[in-house]
């Protein structure tokens, strides 16, 4: 029996998501210790002590189902963003919400539009449904909004835009992005994925757009700046009618009780967020200066990672770094075979990467 014969054809053609290599796996495979992981855009500070205390407290109730409506977390989000509770959909990570949005609105006859060099989850959730993914060519490694606008058809149900973008870190200015959203037909949803928004300059309040554009959905996550990637919690903000539909498809207990407790506290931990941003800004300077010194080009980034052109087969450089206990992310699967994506770590971690890379490339 070849089960590919009975699976959806779109699924048999799906490229599985390739996650960053876990530290334990590298330890097992190469026998190296003292590993530095700069591969998954995680927060190098680790979780905040206030969040850890909340998780410990919540762990006493592990025998109970979580609050399926996530009331406390939704209330905290509504307060922070000045929105109503019925505009919020919680997810087991924002990946979960992205998938639920696709399953709520997209059928096999529809099209989903996204850019070249953008987040791998968009094609996965699209193809899993059997819908057609339409890829707009990128400009300078980022979204070309004109090219995207030209590819909208009667069948385009969802447009995914990551801002800042992953894996390139590129950023769309708010005025250009809003002009694009304003011109998208109302029957096409725009999903603005702001997983890295906290690292940017924060001068624009995209939340205020929700009141103007009913077809806009904004997604955010606790996995990056809030340091909770392991707990899996993210959310979508939208028009209440859209949220009502998405919430029907969502599994009733998709966010676990520890994640709910942690995220609710994390949202109020401003000091942690400031330290996160400062650490990232300093690390970004450190890494870009090192790239300049080595004569390596990089894509200007507004996120917590930087994508570097190593001018050779990046997979080989990735492997050589692994041997030395440094995990980064090759992005050949995204069509960038000479680039490595490097998450910003602590100063010592960044330096370990820089020194190891310089040795491998002979650019010391
Ligand atoms: C990391 C990331 C997310 C967040 O994923 P979670 O499921 O919330 O951990 C979403 N979108 C993009 C573009 C990302 O890079």
Which cofactors or ions or other ligands sit in this model? pyridoxal-5'-phosphate
Q: Biggest sheet, open or closed, and with what strands and sense?
A: 7 strands, mixed
Helix-residue proportion = 25-40%
Quaternary structure of the protein: single chain
Overall residue-averaged pLDDT value: 96
Q: Helices and strands, in N-to-C order?
A: HHEHHEHEHEHEHEEEHHHEEHEEEH
CATH topology of the largest domain: Aspartate Aminotransferase, domain 2
Helix count from the secondary structure assignment: 13
Q: Alpha-carbon distance between the termini?
A: 55 Å
**What top-tier CATH class of the largest domain fits best?**
Alpha Beta
User: What is the count of β-strands?
Assistant: 13
Structural class: alpha/beta
Characterise the protein shown here.
With 364 residues, the chain is of the alpha/beta class. It is built from 13 helices and 13 strands. It has helices at residues 9-12, 23-30, 49-58, 71-81, 94-105, 121-129, 145-150, 174-183, 240-249, 257-266, 270-294, 314-323, 347-361; strands at 36-37, 88-91, 111-115, 132-136, 156-162, 189-193, 216-221, 234-238, 298-299, 305-309, 326-327, 329-331, 336-343. The strands form three sheets. Strands 2-8-7-6-5-3-4 form a seven-stranded mixed beta sheet, sandwiched between helices. Strands 9-10-13-12 form a four-stranded antiparallel beta sheet, covered by helices on one side. A hairpin with a 4-residue loop joins strand 12 (329-331) and strand 13. Helix 3 runs antiparallel to helix 10, helix 4 runs parallel beside helix 10 and helix 5 runs parallel beside helix 6. 45% of the residues are buried. Bound molecules: pyridoxal-5'-phosphate. Pyridoxal-5'-phosphate is lined by residues 41, 93-95, 119, 162, 166, 193, 195, 221, 223-224, 229, 234. Pyridoxal-5'-phosphate binds next to helix 5.
